[in-house]
Amino acid sequence: MTILDWFLDPAQWAGADSIPVQVGYHLLYSGTALLIALAIAVPLGVYIGYTGRGELLVAGVANALRALPTFGLLVLVVMLVAPHIGSRLAFVGPTIVVLVLLAAPPILSGTVAGIQGADPGAVGAARATGYTRPQILWHVQVPCALPLFLSGVRNATLQIVSTATVAAYVSLKGLGRYIIDGRASSDYTQMAAGAILVAVVALALELAFLGLERAVVSPGLTRAQLPILRRTSRVRPGVVPPASPREATP
Fold first, then answer.
1. Ramachandran class of 15: left when φ > 0, alpha when ψ lies in -120 to 50, beta otherwise
2. Average of pLDDT values for 151-162?
3. What span, in angstroms and rounded, lies between the C-alpha atoms of 213 and 92?
4. Which of 3, 81, 93, 138 is the most exposed place for a label (fewest CB within 10 A)?
5. Structural domain boundaries in the chain
6. pLDDT, tens digit, for every residue of 97-114?
7. Is CATH 1.10.150.320 the right assignment for the domain spanning 19-233?
């Protein structure tokens, strides 16, 4: 059976283990982890970018989290949690935790870099018109941070979607099932189909984020952030890049 025949097989599109169901579970795990990571990383990133406090500590912790082996960490957390929980939550919870640890560093890095990279001229103009520091943060720095923030969220999303296949290792549903089950039965067509599905989902989300950025971010603001985007793209994921004197908020 070729990969095309596999996709055209009606059995792959109906039933409890169909492609739509597996895609749904994959997106459920990914979306839940992304929302939790946003809830943690965005407030922390705004605080660090605004005050400059704890930047080195958080950068070190973020790098340490990025260095953790995803599969090994998942197995360890499941072994610690499963004996105390008798439901599927013993497997879902650790999977979400691992994905959150993977997603938080790029979101944190993008948020901090965006806040610190706000246009000094805009900040100075706002201060001259009588804006308070909180008003400058929410009305100037946060909007200026959108390009870098969305870039961090996009990177985190792609990493989560690509890594969520590990859920299949702990008997959960998702696109990883095709890869794990195909390997167990030496069905390489199914394995290839699973990998293609993961790539298609990731590509679709990438295009969706590009469309979102075009819709909500001013083209002029995006151009102003290009030097910082290039600089952060050369930094390892999870590293909070230091702001240059001209990019730092006065």
1. left
2. 93
3. 31
4. 138
5. 19-233
6. 999 999 999 999 899 988
7. no
